[in-house]
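Peptidase C39 domain-containing protein: structure, please.
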Amino acid sequence: MVLAFYGQQISQEQLARLLQVSKKYGTARKQLVRIAKKLGFRVIAQHRGTVQDLLRHIRAGCPVIVNYLEPSDNEGHYAVVVGFRNGSIILNDPWNGRGFKIPLREFLKRWRGTTPAGAPYSRWWMTMQCN
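Here you go.
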């Protein structure tokens, strides 16, 4: 979704290979960062993010990738924050579709997870811009 936003056309299969997606563990955050840099993007990625971090980048026109617990199955999941409206965060989400709204309070509860090794993390986000 974010690659297409920046005009990069890459198939889902090719991206999965580049990211070394695992059926057991999914996609590692460090792989997202590594591949984005390899594709020529400047990357900012942080833990312990705030809503203000997300707002700052959205207002600057940069979509923000977040890792959160998806509402229907409580599994770790990536989505793209594209806006805020009426107390909700708006996501373009591979599972829930474009324009998926989730109340901000609910999102904040879900913006956490564990690494494949079982270590907890919270409020991870990433944005990328062309160099």
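Notes: DSSP finds five helices and eight strands in the chain.
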